[in-house]
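Why does residue order matter? Because the sequence determines the fold. Keep that principle in mind as you read this record.
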Amino acid sequence: MLLLFHRREIGVMQTSVLDAKHFHDEEAAYAYLEARLWPNGPVCPHCGGVDRVGKLKGKSTRIGVWKCYQCRKPFRVTVGTVFESSHVPLRLWLQCVHLMASSKKGISSNQLSRTLGVTLKTAWFMSHRVREAMKTLGLEPMGGAGEIVEIDESFTGRIDGMPVQTTPGGASSYKNTILALVTRGGAARTFHVEGTTSGELLPVIRANLSKEAFIMSDEWKGYKKLGDEYWMHQAVNHGAGEYVRGIVHTNTVEGYFSIFKRGMKGVYQHCKEKHLHRYLSEFDFRYSNRIALGINDTARADRALRGVVGKRLTYRPPHH
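Structure:
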């Protein structure tokens, strides 16, 4: 009876997502990326041609090479993306994207290096390219049609060149300030800002919130001005021990910060100020494409792949 149960258990076991062919075969990796970036067929990145395009199949031809017979130039799907000119096999890039998209609190460069079998420097560079792909461009204002948007600020890391010091200003005197806007039941959008004054926070809020938004925040006095500009603003008084008043609270945005800080402290441990905006993009992306919104790990990784176009990133100084 036990053996029969064991066999049944084996029969219903799911295949690991990492067994997929595009994670292990280079031709399959190119086909997988082409299907996501060219859903209607190949497009020449040089001239935009789509009609007179053919795949090169010679024995000496590199995998995934196409030729446009309008501009007479060869190309691959990686041209104009964060993968361009990389010596890392595309199948490893796809593994990296999946690992970063599916790790709720992130995955360190050291772990990527060991898992992918690349150097630490290569893993660090790959992860930053993927973070760039996760960055969302052309964002619409949040909070349309009276959606609830929670606002809060927090601190992380250390301002470059600033030693730790105990001052009346507290953490804000030497740590980086993060402003978060989180739609309840929806997406997150965070910003690395200069400080916590109304002059530093309100312009960012105004640029990213619809006038129809229902804003919820803590009791910070700078937020009080928002009540005259938006559909509604309610606040909870944390200083008086109030954390929930009916539907009014900031628990959602604080939950976002909890994930972010656990990732930054427990996984990444250190982040230079100049790279902080990319880490914010990474955590925003995963939060805004989470399981609770019906997006599983594979779908999330595919969304990241669709963001690789037009974001080529290089850390080498340009040649003059």
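The first strand starts at residue 53 and ends at 55.
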